[in-house]
Amino acid sequence: MIKSLNTFETLLSYSEENNLPIYKIMEEVESRAFDITVEEIRKKVKHNVDEMKNSIKNGLACREKSQSGLSGGDCAKLREKFKTTPALFGSLYEKISTYSLAVIEENARMGKIVACPTAGSCGIVSSVLVALSEELNLTEEDEINMLITAGAIGHIVSIKLAPAGAVGGCQAECGLASAMAAAACTCARKGTTKQIIHSATLALKNILGLTCDPVLGLVEVPCVKRNVFLATYSITASELAMAGIESKIAPDDVVDALVQTGQLMSPLLKETSQGGLAFTKSADNFKETIKF
Amino acid sequence: MKQHSLFDIISPVMIGPSSSHMAGAIRLGLMAGKIYSSTIKKVTFKLYNSFAETGKGHGTDKGLMAGLIGLSADDIRVRTVFDLEEVKKIDYKYEFSHNLDRHPNAVDFIINDETVISGNSTGGGNIEITKINEFETSISGEYPTIIVFYKDKPGMISRVTELILEKHINVATLNCTRNAKGETASMCICLDSPAENGVAEKISALEDVYFVRNIDKMDS
Ligand code: SF4
Questions:
Q1: What is the layout of strands, in order, in the sheet containing B126-132?
Q2: I need a surface site. Which of A127, A133, A251, A290 has the fewest CB within 10 A?
Q3: Which residues line ligand 1 (CB under 6 A)?
């Protein structure tokens, strides 16, 4: 019986000793902590998977700009480009990149999305999950397992660091989302618990230090394009882990490094829009022209 | 300590673009509406700090209003809330200011010129109602909560809690504040399971109780 899930080490040893996949362990912990049945948990997760699919559908169908005009329309551009010149990396890449743009543009337009772990990073797990499901012909049960697995990774990290740009920079939002997406991807490909954890760790490890510097404080620049980058990036982490490549720094140590990096990051680079991209001439120009 | 849930990470399903500026704003509005719980004819929203600065760009103004009239964080009508008939009937305005003593994402709802409800959007869509009129509170919506304003005199706390225990409901936390001895005091009681309606009515019927609200837990 496992009561709480605080470290990757506990997750791995419990999983190996009991021969249980990550999603089953997460279900057990959640069910116990909140007095809710596994069926209820899976039903709620399925609802979120469905809403992820809806957000992709709505985002793909719309080319409107956001209220500020800073984002919107790029998804349509990318889709048109793929129609004439396919992506070098193939159809999975085309789906992940367009779906992630669809969802995050929808977010900026005040559309309905699934925050995962946050609204600013909502395109990452959504796009990877749905694109993989379509490309690999996965079942509804597989999709639910993927999202719970991704959630378990986020759960463990968030116990040490709140997933918020204001607390840990974008490494804690989009960075964490890409680690979760990598885990979902590795889960879909039937990777072992160790491979799932290492795929998430490799993703986190290579995004350490990513700051949060949204122009005008809006979740648009750089957030929109960052979702595309980090969604596709998560596949690299999964590929390495599926080959048995491991992070030389232990997973829990990488989380500690993430926390430490977040603490060391200047407050000017943590959602205050007083540094980085938000503090440039171009950003100033937007300030002049965008009025609400 | 707050227990971490899987659904803190893979939820909420919400209207974009920002959990603190939109989902949090909607939930603050919802909570203020539940606390006020009568017809709202007039409201002034006072937004502070980051809520004031980037609120418009994030649609925080829409979110606060949407919540106040009872729309949930995933209701697509939030986008066009000012076009709704029930909103057109309300005399509303927004004020924006800076006050470093307040939370970065703070708001006051001044309802019908009589009740002031203050709260903060604390991140990830979580919220806290910090004040109702002159009373400090700490209501997050994570638990079913009973709020009681009463005259500060001996025995009041036990009288109220007895009525709750009668129903075999466990009290998770209990917070009391008062302004001065013998004056009005407030109680915020977080419960492990929701109280049936009868409980609030019984509490209201107690002598020297001025105000009672039985507020459900909010959906995550
Ligand atoms: S830059 Fe900041 S606001 Fe934008 S997605 Fe990253 S953490 Fe969120």
A1: B91-97, B42-48, B106-111, B115-123, B126-132, B135-139
A2: A290
A3: A 120-121, 165, 170, 173-174, 212, 214, 219, 222-223, 226, 271
Domain boundary among B102, B133, B164: B133
Residue A107: HSE in the Cβ half-sphere, 13 Å Cα cutoff: 37
Q: Candidates A68, A173, A270, A274: which one to mutate for ligand 1, based on the most atoms within 8 Å of Cβ?
A: A173
Q: Write the pLDDT tens digit of every residue in A14-49.
A: 999 999 999 999 999 999 999 999 999 999 999 999
pTM: 0.91
Residues spanned by the domain of B113: 6-133
Looking at the 3D structure of chain B, how many domains does it have? 2
Tell me, yes or no, whether A256 lies in a domain. Answer: yes
- Nearest 5°: the CA angle A275, B14, A24 is 100
Domain extent, residue A245, equals 8-140+161-280
CB < 8 Å from A in window 158-177 of B: none
ipTM for this prediction: 0.95
- Looking at the 3D structure of chain A, how many domains does it have? 1
Task: Please judge whether B6 and A41 are an interchain contact, meaning their C-beta atoms are less than 8 angstroms apart.
Answer: yes
Q: Nearest C-alpha to atom 8 of ligand 1 is from which residue?
A: A120
* B27 and B97, same domain (yes or no): yes
Shared-domain flag, residues B107 and B197: no
Q: Are residues B87 and B153 in the same domain?
A: no
B58 touches chain A (CB under 8 A): yes
B52 and B11 within one domain: yes
With CB atoms and an 8 Å threshold, state whether B10 touches A154: yes
Give the pLDDT confidence of A166-219 residue by residue, as tens digits: 889 999 999 999 999 999 999 999 999 999 999 999 999 999 999 999 999 999
> Given CA atoms B158, B162, B163, B168 in this order, what sign does their dihedral have?
positive
Per-residue CA distances from A122 to A117, A125, A228 (Å): 7, 7, 11
Q: Which two tokens stand for residue A191?
A: 């990777």
- Tell me if chain A has a CB within 8 Å of the CB of B78: yes
Domain end (from B113, B133, B153): B133
The CATH number of residue B50's host domain is 3.30.1330.90
